[in-house]
Amino acid sequence: MERQLNKQKYGLFIYLRDVNENIVWSNTIEPTSKIPDRYEVVFNDDKVKISRTDKDIETTTEVCISAEDNCQVEKIIISNLSDSEKIIELTSYMEITLSGLMADIAHPTFNNLFIRTEYLEQYNSIIASRRPREHGKKQFGRSIHCVQKNSQKILRLKPTVLNSLEEETLF
After folding, report:
1. Is residue 115 part of a domain?
2. 103 and 54 in contact (C-beta within 8 Å)?
3. Nearest of 114, 144, 140, 139 to residue 126 by alpha carbon
4. Least CB-packed of 10, 104, 117, 128 within 10 Å?
5. 3-state DSSP: the chain helix, strand, coil percent, rounded to 5?
6. CA atoms within 13 A on the CB side of 101
7. 150 lies in a domain?
8. Contacts of 96 (CB under 8 A, 6+ apart)
9. How far apart are CA 117 and CA 76, in angstroms?
């Protein structure tokens, strides 16, 4: 099967789910393509800021890409704008390829066979590396490091008080 670049959804995705109402959306338009009540994207020299409101939950995502290093940092702020407590479940997803784009397009399943991952609890990190195809070849790897203010997958967000926004910052 041939991959079509304009239809394939690449990147790091964060899914949110209101546990009580069983509503699922993402912190950006993709990958769910769910149209929010409000959506704004602001491009600055140092970062991109994406804000959206879905019902009474506001998410703000800031993405910074280093000019010096091959590094991307994302910060996500989730705010409950309602009068009642919300339980929000978060799920992150990223497909790691560790190969060139054209190699991934040509043989995505084959390339995934060479990826190995390891969780390092002391650093709250997932290390992904590419196993060499031949003995003696150099190993290519990347580190994905996740840091969370609230280390739970499910957040209980209390209602915000006027002029006092309660936030949970992740990643």
Report:
1. yes
2. no
3. 144
4. 117
5. 10, 45, 45
6. 5
7. yes
8. 115, 117, 128, 142, 144
9. 24
Q: What's the CATH number where 112 sits?
A: 2.70.98.40
d(CA 99, CA 108): 10
The pLDDT tens digits of the residues spanning 94-151 come to: 777 777 778 777 877 777 777 788 887 777 777 777 777 677 766 666 656 565 555 4
What token pair was written down for 26? 């993402």
User: Is residue 7 in some structural domain?
Assistant: no
| Number of structural domains the chain divides into | 1
* Domain range for 46: 12-170
User: The tokens of 50 are what?
Assistant: 């994406």
pTM (2 decimals)? 0.72
Residues 6 or more apart whose Cβ sits within 8 Å of residue 121 = none
pLDDT, tens digit, for every residue of 97-113?
777 778 777 877 777 77
Tokens of 2: 């041939």
